[in-house]
Amino acid sequence: MFIRRFSNFVKMDNKLKCLLFEAYFTLAWARYWKSRDFSKVAAILGKQMSETPYFVNGNNRIILRNISSAMHMASKYAFWESECLVKAIAGMKMLERRGIDSTIYLGTAKDVTGLIAHAWLRSGTYYLSGKEGMEKFTVVATFANDLTSINRKGERYG
Fold first, then answer.
1. What is the mean pLDDT of residues 103-129?
2. 146 phi and psi, to 5 degrees?
3. Using 50, 70 and 90 to split pLDDT, how confident is the model at 79?
4. What is the rounded CA–CA span in Å between residue 23 and residue 21?
């Protein structure tokens, strides 16, 4: 099993290998932030109670799909918890490095055990993480990383 997985990794394209390493270390960074007080975490996530547009630049579709795949693959091999919020934060930061807008949604719902929470990440119309089951949750917070309206000098357009 390990030999087959290692063999598959060796055969991968170098760009995909780099993306997997980036995803792995960004997931570790996000897990660290999840362990901190949420008021500090909220400060790094973007504009609170705001959303980015539901528009995807056609050139970004492949990037979005690759980042999503790399995050899910890397989370399987992480020795720390890498569930919905960790994936959403990591994905947002990976997109931020590439200048791509994204929105994190935080939702709550009731089940037999009580109140449960979920997080998911959207960029344009594409959901990178947490899409499964999101319809069961009521959105209680959003965090938007609106990068397309910021120019290179850090000034907002419009």
1. 95
2. -90, 95
3. confident
4. 5
Q: Which two tokens stand for residue 37?
A: 């007080």
Calpha distance 98→147 (Å, rounded): 10
Distance CA(129)–CA(119), nearest Å, equals 8
pTM recorded for the entire structure: 0.85
Distance of CA 149 to the CA centre of its chain: 20
* Overall average pLDDT of the 147-158 stretch: 49
Looking at the chain, how many residues does it have?
158
Hey, where are the domains in the chain?
2-145
Whole-angstrom Cα distance, residue 119 to residue 85? 5
Q: Report the C-alpha dihedral over residues 109, 101, 28, 72, rounded to 10 degrees.
A: 70
> 126-152: per-residue pLDDT in tens?
999 999 889 999 999 999 998 765 544
Q: Residue 143 region, left (φ>0) first, then alpha (ψ -120 to 50), else beta? A: beta
Q: Which amino acid is at 148?
A: T
User: Helix, strand or coil for residue 18?
Assistant: helix
Of the candidates 137, 15, 6, the residue with the CA atom closest to the CA atom of residue 69 = 15
